[in-house]
Every structure is written in structure tokens, then in C-alpha cells.
TrEMBL record:
UniProt-listed InterPro entries: Spore_V_AE, SpoVA
Keyword check for Cell division: no
Membrane-traversing stretches: 6-23, 30-50, 95-114
Record key words, sorted: Membrane, Transmembrane, Transmembrane helix
Pfam families from the UniProt entry: SpoVAC_SpoVAEB (PF03862)
Phylogenetic lineage: Bacteria, Bacillati, Bacillota, Clostridia, Eubacteriales
Protein name (Swiss-Prot/TrEMBL): SpoVA protein
NCBIfam families for this protein: spore_V_AE
Source organism superkingdom: Bacteria
Length: 120
């Protein structure tokens, strides 16, 4: 059990370290880094490489942005295998719907509980 926490911390931390290095040492904008991480998750997921990272890092690998890309890739591949070409359009949406719904719901709840302000 404790090893799960440690491995999740290591993998999630490494992903954050890589992002911080990209922010500090390159001229990439945060948006480009985020898109790059999701794209990397899609590519590594499609090649079954990210499966190894998830087996070791568990939530430390599935929660950050590469995990979102992995979810998109795996659910799209599954849907294409089951439904054909139409699965290329529906698979990612079906696979990521729960996470997206949770993010919207909890964001709304946080906005109700706190006093959100626009940045000036």
C-alpha cells in the first residue's frame, strides 16, 4: 500500500519536474506544454508504452495530462475495434466523459462555495 503512494508520488512528480524544466529552459508557453503532454500521452498510449508507466505509477500516471491523452487513445482504439470508423469520433468522448463531467461539476461547486474573481 505504501509503495503505491511512493510510486504515484515519483511518477507524478517526474511529470511535474519535466513540465517545470520545459517552462524554465524553453520558450514554450504553458498551453503548448499542456498540449504536448496530452499528445505524448496519446502517442505512448497507442504504442502501449504508457501502460508500463501506469502499472508502476498508478494515479501518479493517470491523473496528470499524459494520463488524459492515454485515456483518449485507449478508448478511441477500443471504440474503433467495436464500432468501426465511427468509433474514431465517439471513442475519446466516451472514454473521457466521466473525468470531464467531474471537472465541470467540481469547478461549479467550488465557484458556489468561494468568491471567484477575474484576474486583473
Amino acid at each position: 500500500m505504501m509503495n503505491d503512494y511512493v510510486s504515484a508520488f515519483i511518477v507524478g512528480g517526474l511529470i511535474c519536474v519535466i513540465a517545470q524544466i520545459l517552462i524554465d529552459k524553453t520558450k514554450f508557453t504553458p498551453a503548448r506544454i499542456l498540449v504536448s503532454f496530452v499528445t505524448l500521452g496519446v502517442i505512448l498510449g497507442a504504442l502501449n508504452i504508457y501502460d508500463v508507466v501506469i502499472r508502476f505509477g498508478k494515479a501518479g500516471a493517470t491523473i496528470p495530462l499524459p494520463g488524459f491523452g492515454y485515456t483518449l487513445a485507449k478508448s478511441t482504439i477500443k471504440e474503433v475495434n467495436e464500432k468501426g470508423l465511427i468509433g474514431a469520433f465517439t471513442g475519446g468522448i466516451k472514454g473521457a466523459a466521466g473525468g470531464i463531467t467531474a471537472a465541470i461539476f467540481f469547478g461549479y461547486v467550488a465557484a458556489l462555495l468561494f468568491d471567484p474573481k477575474t484576474k486583473k
